[in-house]
User: Fold these one by one.
Assistant:
Number 1:
Amino acid sequence: MTFADALARFAHWPLRIALSSVFLYHGLAKFPALDGLADMMGMPVIAVAALASMEVLGAVLILLGGFGKDWMTRLGGLLLVPIMLGAILMVHFQHGWNSVNMGTGNMGRGMEFQFTLLMLALYFALKGNHEVARKEAGTAVRKQDRPAARREEVGSRASTQVWP
């Protein structure tokens, strides 16, 4: 086993932290400004409050899901997907892909960042905690995934040993 292999089981954490930090930041920032955001977005205050709640809850579930609960990860992703679809379709799509203001006239309002967040949320909604989910369901490693039986010569007799 290489060092990278040993770290592979932690590879989901940077993705969880990146996605959750964005939604926690933006979701929590909406609560003190619900009235102003509702006016700016042309939405009822209750809709903006629901949006902020979905952002915060989705982010928290993505993080908590990393500790083993598959349903938390999947639900967190499912809460964030419609938010990003709405942001892309209602605001960013009309400005194209580029979200960096490089003199193209879109003032940095393109959809590349929102698309990336959408793909991360979709990943967690679809994949969940695959390994953890398999353990929770009690599904063992498939027989074909195990190393083949090996023969060991022990003294003058041969024994067959099957990997657990």
Number 2:
Amino acid sequence: MPSPDTASDTRTLQGNAVTTTITIQELASRIGNEQVSDWVEVSQDMIDKFADATGDHQFIHVNPQMAAMTPFGGTIAHGFLTLSLMPLLSSKIIDAVQIEGVKMGINYGGNKVRFLQPVKSGKRVRGRFKLLELTEKRPGQWQQTNEFTVEIEGEEKPAMIAEWMSQIFV
């Protein structure tokens, strides 16, 4: 984190987290750094709404009685629901960094995504974001690659690990 006397360092309080504003060049110096979010519950209601939005109503997601008879012992979140938690979890990063002058950010795609363990209904998850690469593609357009890990509270093995790319326009 830049020192408080750095000219571009601006701190604001959002909820319980402190947000620091840095330049895109300062972000480039943070390759290898990790940021961690607060915990978020994956409720059955969240799973049911995702099933409705995607049309994926497989019983392991939406039928607690039938899902109880599987090796999972109950309903589990969709793998794509776990992946789609990226924006929510990134909004809950403790000591978040905001990039000065950002006009917009867009998803560019994933290099790899692995679902390692299902998230059971009612469990809490958090995101771990590690900056792997930041490259200027053209003036004002940067591409960042992050390792995004979804951890399950009380579990050693994460639910998912993804290498995800996004583009930032400043």
Number 3:
Amino acid sequence: MSGCRQDYFRDVRLDTNTRNNRASTAMNALNRFTDPVYCVMRLIAGLLLAQHGGQLILGMFGGMPGSDQMIMQVGGWIQLIGGFMIAFGLFTRLAAFICSGMFAYAYFTMHVAAATTPMAKFFPISSAGKEFSNHGELAVFYCWVFFFMVFYGPGRWSIDALMGRRKATAAAPVRG
């Protein structure tokens, strides 16, 4: 009886390993899409950021309350210019670093500082009431997305990549 049981468990383990290997192979096939999907994400996140900057600086989309304050103006310019730089991949790491820092600053000085209860100071959820949340969810999200971009870089589909290819071509020795 114990021999039957051992064979059964061995077969179950082999079957599980086979399924895991097949799933892993299928998921690894998606790796070829990593850079194009990242570049599309970079484009969308950058354009959404530039849209917020346009709302603050240019009064687009109905404007934004408090946009007459100097700190909001500075943040608006960072968002507008940094958003376009990130979207098109121009000095991506620098722009993402500055934008990430701006959102960290905004979260702690605008959202957490304005929270009225200890619970609201801790939770950034946008859909909760004022007593339960500081509504800084978008600031936290943008901060971490742009922080990730600092380390990942511009990707293949970017102005930075084009400039890098030109430099590499120009630096290549001519053989005669």
Number 4:
Amino acid sequence: MDPSDQHQLAARRTEWVSIVNAGDLPGYVQLVGENVLWLPPAQPPIEGRKAFEAWLRPFFERFDYEFVIEDPDVRLSGDWAVETGAFDTVMTGEDGMPTRHGGEYLVFWHRESDGIWYLERYLDQTLSDRHQTSSDNR
């Protein structure tokens, strides 16, 4: 992999995490491609940037996020990159009760004609979805 591509993808991943943790819905929407396909667990596919925004909005309105990505592995072929890794998310609602959601993910990044990498396809395998207690250790 070209070190420049590796650096750009690492920067986009860092931006992704920062955007989620900041609750920045407009930023998140601009991180995904116009024809994004998001495959959330146990839900219908989300197709297109507008549908992605409509689906995500209630989550960002109701929860604060602590999102972490671990052990990303990226494979590159031309203007496409496939990334796998692990994620952990703690979502805290107005009631103050945190819920942990985590597992493994698969992302297809696509470099558009503007030279920027966008999330084009997303799939996660949720391994945990539970309320967190004060005795839980991260």
